[in-house]
Design brief:
404 residues; alpha/beta; Rossmann fold; Helicase, Ruva Protein, domain 3; 2 domains; six-stranded mixed β-sheet; two-stranded antiparallel sheet; 47% helix; extended
C-alpha cells in the first residue's frame, strides 16, 4: 500500500507509546550495529590497532605510577608513553654484568635490584662529573631559576667499548636526578604508513615537555642517527631532520628541562649535527687493574668464597677485559663447584647401586657446595682466553675516538 492510499486520519493520528518505544529501539539497534560495523572495518584495515590499544593501557598505568595525572595525551604520545620507565622503582634483571654494576647472587631465581650509584664501580671520576654536570642542574634548578646557563646539557653521549655499562650509567643518572625516563628505540618511530614516523617523532618531544624534567635515552644511537647521505630513504631522512629540529631548533625553549642521552660504541658513525647537539661526552673505557679488582669484589659479593682467594692476581691477569667479561669469568668459576657436586652425586648413586642398598635422597642446598676457589677463577680465566682467541675482532679498538 502506497503512502497516498492511506486515509488522512491514519496519517494525522499521533503515534502510540508502544510505537514510539519500538521506533526508538529499532533506531538504537541500527545505530549500534552501524557503529560497531564501521569500527570493525577500521580495525581490520589497521593491523596495528591491537598493539595501539595495548600501548595505550600500558601508558596509562605508567603515567599513573610516575605521578603524572591530569595530562591529556594524543594517540601518538600514548604510544611513546608506553616506553616510559620509572627511575625511582627501576629494576633490572642482572644477567649481563658490566663495568658499573654488581652481579646477581648465585640463587635459584633471578634477583631484582634497584639501579643506583651503589651498584656502580670503577669510574668514580666519571660519576662525579655526571653528578656535577647533569644531575645537579636538575636537582637544584630552584637556586638559579632565572639563569639561562644553570641548566642541564641538551645532550649527553656515553661512548666506549661494549660491555662497559653505558646503559646502566644512564639508568642510574635518571634515578639520581629524579627525571622521567623514556627508553626510546628506533623501531618505535618507524611505521609503514607515510607521515606516521614524523608524527611519532614529534610526539617524543611533546610528551617529554609535558612530563619534564625528562631524559630521552637512545641505546645504540648510531643505528638511528648515523651519518646522513644521499642514499638515505626519504622517510628516514625526514625523520632524522625533524628529530634534530625538535631537539635543538628554532622552536626549542632554553628553559625546557629535556635532555637526550645516547650510548654507543661507534661514535665515529654518528652524524656531525648529532655530535654538535651532544656537547657533554663521557668515555666509558675498559677498567684498569684497580678497577677490575673492585669489580670482581662486587661481582663476588655474597658468594661462598675460599679464604685463599686472591682477586688482585685475577685482576692483573685480565688486562683488556670488560665488566661483562669479568662477570662471565666469575659465572664459570661458580659453575665449577656445581659440576663437582653433580659428579660426586653421580658417583655416590653408582656406588649405591653397586652395593644394592637403599638410602634416602638428601636435599640439595648451597651449604653442601664447596666454596669458590682461586683455581676455579683461574679455570674460568683460561676458558675466557680461549673464547677471546676465537673472536674475529677485539672490542677495545672501536671506541678510542677523541671527541673534542
Amino acid at each position: 500500500m502506497l503512502l497516498k492510499d492511506l486515509p488522512r486520519e491514519a496519517l494525522m493520528r499521533p503515534l502510540s507509546r508502544n510505537e514510539v518505544v519500538g521506533m526508538l529501539f529499532r533506531l538504537t539497534v541500527f545505530g549500534a550495529a552501524t557503529y560497531y560495523s564501521i569500527k570493525w572495518v577500521l580495525d581490520a584495515m589497521d593491523p596495528t590497532s591491537k598493539q595501539k590499544n595495548q600501548a595505550k593501557k600500558r601508558a596509562e598505568q605508567l603515567m599513573k605510577r610516575i605521578g603524572v595525572e591530569g595530562v591529556r595525551l594524543t594517540e601518538y604520545e600514548m604510544n611513546i608513553a608506553s616506553h616510559l620507565v620509572d627511575p625511582q622503582t627501576m629494576k633490572v634483571t642482572v644477567v649481563i654484568i658490566s663495568l658499573f654494576y654488581v652481579a646477581q647472587r648465585f640463587m635459584n631465581n633471578f634477583t631484582f635490584l634497584q639501579v643506583s650509584w651503589r651498584d656502580i664501580a670503577g669510574l668514580d671520576e666519571v660519576i662525579n662529573e655526571l653528578q656535577d654536570t647533569v644531575i645537579l642542574p636538575f636537582q637544584k634548578r630552584h637556586l638559579m631559576a632565572n639563569s639561562k646557563l644553570f641548566q642541564p646539557p641538551k645532550g649527553v653521549l656515553l661512548f666506549g667499548p661494549p660491555g662497559c655499562g653505558k646503559t646502566m650509567i644512564a639508568k642510574a643518572t635518571a634515578r639520581a636526578s629524579g627525571c622521567r625516563f623514556i627508553n626510546l628505540q628506533a623501531s618505535t618511530l618507524t611505521d609503514m604508513w607515510y607521515g606516521e614516523s614524523q608524527k611519532l617523532t614529534a610526539a617524543v618531544f611533546s610528551l617529554a615537555v609535558k612530563i619534564q624534567p625528562c631524559i630521552i635515552f637512545i641505546d645504540e644511537i648510531e643505528s638511528f642517527l648515523r651519518n646522513r647521505s644521499s642514499m638515505d630513504h626519504e622517510a628516514t631522512a625526514m625523520m632524522k631532520a625533524q628529530f634534530m629540529s625538535l631537539w635543538d631548533g628554532l622552536d626549542t625553549s632554553s628553559t625546557t628541562q629535556v635532555m637526550v642521552m645516547g650510548a654507543t660504541n661507534r661514535p665515529q658513525d654518528l652524524d656531525p649535527a648529532i655530535l654538535r647537539r651532544m656537547p657533554t661526552t663521557f668515555h666509558i673505557g675498559l677498567p684498569n687493574t684497580r678497577q677490575r679488582e673492585d669489580i670482581l669484589r662486587l661481582i663476588l659479593a655474597g658468594e661462598n668464597l675460599s679464604n685463599a682467594i686472591n682477586l688482585k692476581e685475577i685482576a692483573e691477569k685480565t688486562e683488556g677485559y670488560s665488566g661483562s667479561d669479568l662477570r662471565e669469568l666469575c659465572r664459570d668459576a661458580a659453575m665449577y663447584r656445581v659440576r663437582d657436586y653433580v659428579r660426586k652425586e653421580q658417583m655416590r648413586q653408582i656406588a649405591q647401586q653397586l652395593q644394592d642398598c637403599q638410602e634416602e635422597e638428601r636435599p640439595v642446598d648451597e651449604e653442601r657446595l664447596r666454596p669458590v676457589t682461586q683455581l676455579d677463577l683461574l679455570f674460568g680465566l683460561d676458558k675466557m682466553k680461549e673464547s677471546k682467541k676465537a673472536t674475529t675482532f677485539m672490542l677495545p679498538i672501536v671506541s678510542e675516538v677523541a671527541l673534542d
